[in-house]
Design brief:
Blueprint lengths: L1 H21 L4 H18 L21 H4 L12 H7 L3 E2 L19 H11 L5 E4 L6 H9 L2 E6 L2 H12 L9 E5 L5 H4 L8 E6 L17 H7 L20 H15 L3 E11 L2 E2 L5 E2 L1 H9 L3 E10 L20 E9 L1
Parallel strand pairs: 1-9, 2-3, 2-5, 3-4, 5-6
Antiparallel strand pairs: 6-10, 7-8, 9-10
């Protein structure tokens, strides 16, 4: 290992000397040299111990003409700089997620505040309005509060709606934004938002139930699902009412009902505004692969324009032993963040 480190140090010294000696003051010259430097470094990494393989240089290589093609003053979508804009448009990403608090761990499928922040920051400006029809314990609104956006969240479960309120009471809230938690069924979203009739939302950020996946058997492998069971934590949403989307048994009915909620939401969205819906493709008990994200996207295209997707890759989720020793079953550690636009 020391030999490789010595070589890396020599390369760094060599790069520094070249920059000083040749006065590489143009972006293209520096980028060319940087690419050469990175290739030499990467050639050394595979021979190192796995604990040392986290050395990464310039993960995002930005375009040479960034400063000439993008002006921060012309940005009408968000408050980001040109560099921040470009870096946010990469089609996949990972997140450095903070561990769940005691309040958050009770929810079986809480999505990270960092995920909501990423998209709210890109698709809105300060003081804009954000809606989440499947609020859970409040991740979207906590992100809104941090970023000085106004938010409205709808949650069907009284316990989780109350938890969202408690989460806000534990924060140092500013007076620059307004957050609203509505305990109700998003199937009735047009009625629940009637008092917001004059408020047009700039963005929708949400993650609905992944059909009834939480109720499915996961096998006997050591996994996060098994860990929750041993800790006595909820494995599903616990609400057994037929109105809860996670309790619908028929797959196609679920897709139609979920899309219908967004159809009703459309009249509250500004024309041209965006929606991000986080979903995952799944397998049922018969090991049949169901492209949940794509089937939902196809149904949503009846009401919105599907723009693209970004893929959130989880790096902190425990691997399970699925299918061994006869059948291929992957560890699904990615989610599709489907991006729609109101038309």
């Amino acid at each position: 290992m020391s030999i490789e480190l010595d070589e890396i140090r020599r390369e760094i010294l060599s790069l520094t000397k070249l920059i000083k000696e040749y006065k590489l003051d143009t972006n293209k010259q520096f980028v060319d040299l940087r690419k050469h430097f990175n290739k030499k470094i990467q050639a050394l990494i595979p021979s190192t111990d796995s604990s040392q393989r986290k050395l990464q240089l310039d993960q995002d290589i930005l375009p040479d003409d960034l400063s000439t093609k993008m002006s921060d003053n012309e940005n009408r979508l968000n408050d980001l700089t040109g560099k921040e804009w470009v870096k946010s448009t990469k089609s996949w990403f990972t997140l450095a997620v903070k561990p769940r608090t005691k309040t958050e761990i009770d929810h079986p499928a809480k999505y990270p505040i960092e995920l909501a922040e990423r998209f709210i920051e890109f698709f809105t400006q300060k003081n804009h309005w954000v809606i989440d029809p499947f609020l859970g314990i409040g991740s979207t609104l906590l992100a809104c509060e941090k970023l000085e956006r106004n938010g409205v969240g709808i949650e069907i479960d009284q316990k989780y709606a109350a938890a969202a309120h408690r989460n806000f009471s534990q924060q140092t809230l500013t007076k620059t934004s307004v957050q609203n938690v509505i305990c109700g069924d998003s199937n009735e979203i047009d009625e629940l938002l009637s008092s917001f009739d004059k408020t047009k939302f700039n963005f929708c950020m949400t993650s609905p139930p992944y059909w009834n996946m939480l109720k499915k058997h996961r096998g006997g492998s050591d996994s996060q699902h098994k860990d929750r069971k041993e800790m006595g934590l909820p494995l599903d949403y616990r609400d057994n009412s037929k109105d809860n989307l996670g309790n619908i048994d028929d797959y196609n009915t679920f897709i139609l009902k979920l899309a219908d909620i967004f159809r009703k939401l459309k009249k509250f969205m500004l024309k041209g505004s965006y929606l991000v819906v986080v979903l995952q493709n799944i397998r049922n008990d018969d090991n049949e692969y169901l492209p949940l994200a794509w089937d939902f996207a196809k149904e949503m295209e009846k009401h919105y324009a599907l723009k693209q997707e970004q893929i959130w890759c989880q790096t902190d989720k425990k691997l399970g032993i699925w299918g061994y020793p006869t059948t291929y079953v992957s560890n699904v550690h990615h989610h599709y963040c489907l991006i729609f636009q109101t038309i």
